Structure prediction request, 275 residues.
Amino acid sequence: MKKFLINTFKRSLAFFKKDLINQTSYRLSFFLNILSIFIAVYVFFIFSKLFEGSNNYLEKFGNNYFFFLIIGISISDVVLRISSVINTEVRNYQLTGMFEEIINLKAPIIELLSYSFIYPIVYSIFRLLIFLFFAVIFFDLSLDFTNIGLIIFAIFLTLTSCIGIAYIAGAYALAFKKGNPLSAINQLSVMILGGVFFPTTILPDWLNYISQFIPITHALEIIRYLFISENFLNTEVIQHFYSLALLSLCFLSIGLVVCNFAIKNGKKNGTLTIY
Prediction:
């Protein structure tokens, strides 16, 4: 067990270093990404001024639309990045012929694909912190860090659901090679039904019902409440925690099953290396 953990850590570190070197070699691009975050925060700050004042839909968020937007945008940025990891990695493996080498080496494909999450998760969390840093320092956004432990746990559950969704999208890419409507569906559901730009209570009842099956809906409700309230938890937030945990478990389980199936089926039919 100890040897397994050590080997896993070494492989994880190797994948992280590889991706880090690749990304930081484009320094101008890295700087422009940080600048784009500041510009986005500034635009949302100006945009939020249009909705200042009392609003029934934003009342439980302190009628602060800037706060509502920043939390929504920063978390959705993490969600969409992590959800696309396996799909992107599968495309890279198909185009570069990596699958042939992996098969020849008899390396576990699902394990190697899983290491691809490490750098994107670290980078996404870094971007999340930069979003909040700019909002707090330059635009006087007030955040309460009393419940930071629960906020981190909520983000962990959110990442778990994203990894599951990424495996599902990756399975589609392995099976059908070209085009991946699941990525577009995920992006639309997150941005429109997930409560990123507006509370889900504003939606028609049937759309509001569908939104409850999207993990980010519950994640944003939890994180917004915990960042704005000194109270520990209430019944509504506990229910959102239960829903988020259940959805995360379901998506991760389904994702691992379908991705493993797609890999085995591709090996069996000899289509894994075909693009």
Q: What stands out?
A: The two ends are 38 Å apart (CA to CA). Residues 69-269 form one domain. The chain has one domain: 69-269. The chain is about 75% helix and 0% strand.
